Amino acid sequence: MTCPATGPVVVGVDDSPVSRSAVRLAAREAATHQLPLRVVHVFDWGPDPTSPQAELRDSAEQMLADAMAIAVADEPEIEVTTAIIEGHPIVTLLREAAAATLIVVGDGNLATRSNISVDATAVQIAARAGCGALIAREESPPLGPILVGFDGSASSRSALDFAFDSAQRRGRELSVVRVVEAMKAIGDVEAAPVVTDGVGDELAEALAPWQSRYPSVTVTQRVLAGDPDEILVEESRSAELVAVGARGEQPWRGALGAVSQALLYHSPRPVLIVRHPAEQ
Hints:
CATH architecture of the largest domain: 3-Layer(aba) Sandwich
CATH superfamily of the largest domain: HUPs
Largest sheet: 10 strands, mixed
Structural class: alpha/beta
Number of helices: 8
Number of domains: 2
Helix content: 25-40%
Order of helices and strands: EHEHEHEHEEHEHEHEHE
Strand order of the largest sheet: 3-2-1-4-5-10-9-6-7-8
Oligomer: single chain
Number of strands: 10
């Protein structure tokens, strides 16, 4: 499945504070990429089938009205539509993602929780959406560079596509980080020293086609040695947005690789999980 380049930006909303942040972020992306915004609230009768339907409907309509007001106040030029859909939230949002260019959801406060369920909505959307999944945080990010982790994989090249385009449209600098991971010690065998010679040149060569296409984007390229998860989470603290490939060099891990999971769970900034078309 390949997500449509002209599909809407879809944002899932509820009555949580992080949902309002998600709406603002989604409206920003819709305006930045000149796409319509579709605001969706999903409710499931399962937990409490005795609740009055009219009461639930009134509450849902108010959520959508509030979300639309936020979106239009922030980005008055975008086209906004809304929908109330009955069903399982994750299943319904994944169905919405199939026709979207981008789907945005709140993180459910993942970064502040010690125990994270793999069934959490943000985790499932990030892992299974057929388009890019942008995970919003409750706290609005400061203005800063767009950060992208690059390892040469097809997934990370797709992340570069988004990152360069987003940096140009936002007028932001782009920070590209390549992390060289050290081999860990095993028993009595010492860890091998990290070798970064030539990696910087390889990174510059890999980025050249994008820099040619986006000459107005100021790019900082860095090669860092250490644990990719820890380094990229730390680097993300000074970023406005983080873009990362879904699986990177670890396609055997399943829907999300170690780095994308670490950023999803621990970065304080919005994280965009990007898939190569072959992964969708």
